[in-house]
Amino acid sequence: MAEQKAPQKWGLVVDLDRCTGCNACIAACSMENNIPFVGEDEVAYGRAMYWLYNKRDWAGEYPEVKPAFEPVMCQQCGNAPCEPVCPVFASAHSEEEQVNLAVYNRCIGTRYCANNCPYHSRQFNFFDHDLPEPMNSYLNPDVTVRRRGVMEKCTFCVQRIVRGRQKAAAEGREVEDGEIQPACVQACPAGALVFGDMSNPQTKASQMARNQRRYQLLEELGTLPRVTYLKGGGRYGG
Amino acid sequence: MAAETELLQAIKPVEHAEEDPREHLMFDPRPREEMNRMVMEAMTTTTRRYWIWLIGLGLAVVVLLFGAWGNMILTGMGVAGIRRPVFWGVFIVTFVFWIGISHAGTFVSAILRVFKAEFRRPFTRAAELMTTFGLAAGALYPLIHLGRVWVFYWMIPYPNARWLWPNFRSPLVWDFLAITTYLLSSTIYLYLPLVPDLAMARDRTKGWRHTIYKVLALGWRGTEAEWYRLRRAINIFAFAIIPVMFSVHTIVSWDFAVGMVAGWHSTIFGPYFIIGAILSGMAAVVTILFVLRSTMKHFDYFIRVEHFDALGKLLLVFSMAWAYFFFNEYLLSWYGGDAAVKQVLTLHATGPAAWVWYTMLICNVAIPWLTLWNKTIRRTPWAMFIITLLINVGMYAERYTIIPLTLGHQRSPFDWGMYNPRLTEISIALGTLCLFMFLYLLASRLIPLVPVWEVQEGQMAHRLRKVGKAEVPSVTELEE
Q1: Does B27 score more than 70 pLDDT?
Q2: Which domain range does residue A182 map to?
């Protein structure tokens, strides 16, 4: 490219008022990112693989209970606790996309990053989960299939970001707002998830993130998460 | 006046039964040739029971350690019990345990040598061997716990085509470097004082043993110049290895303290881990000394109740120091006021696995404090054997509390989880214990386990001198 621009800071806004807890994001994420299905026994043992999980809290006393949903994915911390502890740079920050990358083929599986992640959003491949024929043909060719012994996690669908940027560059234009969407954002029927360039104050995501309902997960730890939540409930309904 | 005398009578310290100094090894010398022969006999005598143990332990290592590990490599880490959010379990617990055991050698040998504690003489080597083999057992775990052990060498800084170095910000790399340094230096430190004894063994053996000792003794003849250089070298090493020892367990503690896990992120972890390591290591020295004394020929001459007594006192001191740091961890967290840390520490004592926490306190504090103040107990070897075994059970429970039980209850209660070790983990942990014992048994018949020259040197320096009618123990200053 001709001129060097400041890197775009991709971010995600989750409007909890709109989240219905339908888990479409989880399904879309699993299909997009070739996340293995680990089987009944492993799920029962607590090793279900999701890059995105829906934290469900109950409010109130039984029987007057209300569920509260909070979809949690990798927060793509600007100051990520998983990065310095990896002995082999398998958890690294990308300069282009400003996201936290999991370099699968560099990972040696110390699992330190997973311990150090306050959001518990990293997953470990305890076994190989090969798909039988012809199921393997649904695999996304843009995403590595991970083997046993490596960590993996949400990448904000970095393959989609790269493809979107390349397309825009080939057409000689800037990436438009809303042009790039991770699988979870694309699948959300309620429009609770909004993805965009947070360094540009005009994008929909940045505008939403300035809402007074905003909060970030465990902000006080200083991890500088890239995911902003808009509080649900209260006088806004929910 | 009368009342004062009475008071003085009352507060007069209780006189201990007068110890006969001749019961001490240093005041009970035997002719040098006889002592050499005793050590040689202890080394070369192998009973039927010895071979059964050796072969049994060797098989156990193959099956329990390499069998289970091999199975885990082939099928996947999932055969271990770890699950989100507890990604570190028994492997890291046992790793810290072995590194702790390995502190015994340096502490007993180097620190007591530097401070000229004379009772150290007969068992410095037994302790140094523990260091080396404890490290050998412990150093396996950074490999065992890797998801992809076949690429472990990516942690080593080596030149490669991609110009990729390990991440020097990661405590795991520091760990790797610290343990390698400690293993190398402690092996050299084991070897240096061994040279005169190897020469002694060389002069008294034939056949394959003679060939081995001839090479290892480096042509030692025992000239004045050789002794001078050896003493200098040992002295330098004894001082140099102490900071290495402290750094190793500090760095092991940084594996946890550098992380931002609630309950790990604490500046007290460095000294806390070191005190714990020394406590468990010293306890293991006593355990091993009891086993050596009751199984090896002539060892009741070298290892005496006075040694159990002296080590028992040290153990009591370290148990108190450990309790202080344990208390301090709570104090500082309370002062820090982090709700998550408070939650974790409360759950240690009240959560589903609180029995581990209570085991730790009973074995590390209650048992030593209730028993080790008593001279009779300290001078009863089998009692010391049981107490020190329990201390190590307590130290294992401490590491278990710190690692999996802390990881299970972090800042987000939705993600709380428990972890139970599975057969693979238990098998590998027992396998490294068997490996340690196997190596120790093997070494006990290959190298002189008692540093004869150090004992003889000590006996030369100690004399009972007559002062009037009393016989007073006296020590000649050996070094300049």
Answers
A1: yes
A2: 10-236
